[in-house]
Amino acid sequence: MDKPKVVLGVSGGIAAYKACELLRRLTESGHEVRVVPTASALHFVGEATWSALSGNPATTEVWESVHEVPHVRIGQSADLVVVAPATADLLAKAAHGLADDLLTNTLLTARCPVVFAPAMHTEMWEHPATRENVATLRRRGAVVIEPAVGRLTGVDTGKGRLPDPGEIFEVCRRVLARGTAEQRLDLAGRHVVVSAGGTREPLDPVRFLGNRSSGKQGYALARAAVARGARVTLVSANSELPDPAGADVVRVSTAVQLREAVLKAAAEADAVVMAAAVADFRPARYAEGKIKKRDGQEPDPIALVRNPDVLAEISADRARPGQVVVGFAAETDDVLANGRAKLARKGCDLLVVNEVGEHKTFGAEASEAVVLASDGTETPVPYGPKEVLADTVWDLVARRLA
To answer: Which EC number(s) are documented for this chain (predicted)?
Structure first.
């Protein structure tokens, strides 16, 4: 089979060196990559590096190999174009159809999916001109990944950092795996909220009540939604996974903190997917000092109180008309019977029911589930990667939003 053809555009930002890692991941996973840098990008990483790593010539000029008409052919033959980093200048040119070098000509001739991974200072990203250019590109069907928050050039910190190259690769892989533009971007223009991980309820300064959730399913849901064009808010409880490219990550620890973050984000969300394992109970009293072991004495019983039921709350009081709410049910016995009862009790639109155990679902790379719907339909998802379950959930959500 022919290798998928990927054009890696690189514009002139300090984050250009990180594109070398993205290039490595693309080539090692079986893609044929042609690097098309801008002239400014070559100030950061030289042409020889791009050519050596990709195995293909890298040039900025439309005047080289003119008989091959590169300014047209490269875009025409591509299965995917990804620009990383995409500077404010590059986004402006792409939005307005300017074509003064090989990369911008390639963007005009490409009829394949296009992914932009912006990187710039916070002020540039937040400028109305940039925001309008991003909105224009998204309306036309491009996937523009939200930049990450972190250290920028110099001493500056803020939103505008290039997402992790491995996470950009995951977006590219998912975009390539989907079909037509309508299928690829069925969540374009939507804002979705995903909770992930497991809450922890502190007993004392060193101990907590927690669970085995790693956050892998919630993070898979966030990545899948980004690749389908959504703006994603990920409320992450105690997960050590890398931030999904394009998601705005809100970090929490306890169930009360998760409730506050989810309710705030859900106020303007089209869909809320509660994949986090939220503790049902918390200790009634928090010990200010470490609970000591006393010789010859049994420990005092730990009294528990109920945590707020976030899923039931957002299901009963939808922040917006037509908002879709999805819950997760982790069961150990009578899985479907308990799931159906929970669906009726919680009042959500969809409930993902799966069996959990010490070595099952929590922390694993794969799972199986049944998605129960409020209309009585059931969608089984056979054992497989968690991203398959994520796409099944978004398929069902997208139909309801449509």
So the answer is: 4.1.1.36, 6.3.2.5
Q: Cβ contacts of residue 334 below 8 Å, gap of 6+?
A: none
Torsion of CA 22, 25, 28, 33, to 10 degrees: -30
pLDDT tens digits for range 377-402? 999 999 999 999 999 999 999 999 98
Tell me the torsion sign for CA atoms 198, 240, 185, 97: positive
Domain boundaries, the chain: 5-182, 191-285+299-401
Instruction: Report the binding-site residues for CTP.
Output: 280, 290, 308-311, 328, 342, 346
For residue 142, pLDDT beyond 50: yes
- The residues near 385 (Cβ < 8 Å, ≥ 6 apart) are 220, 365, 366
Active site residues: 211
Q: Tens of pLDDT along 63-73?
A: 565 555 456 78
**CATH superfamily name and code, 191-285+299-401:** CoaB-like (3.40.50.10300)
- Domains 5-182 and 191-285+299-401 agree in fold: yes
Q: Return binding residues.
A: 280, 290, 308-311, 328, 342, 346
Residue 3 pLDDT exceeds 90: no
Identify the CATH number of the domain defined by range 5-182.
Answer: 3.40.50.1950
Q: How many residues does the chain have?
A: 402
- Alpha-carbon distance of 381 to 353, in angstroms, equals 10
Q: State which H helix or E strand residue 74 sits in.
A: helix 70-77
- Mean pLDDT, rounded, for 320-328: 95
Who wins on pLDDT, 355 or 80? Answer: 80
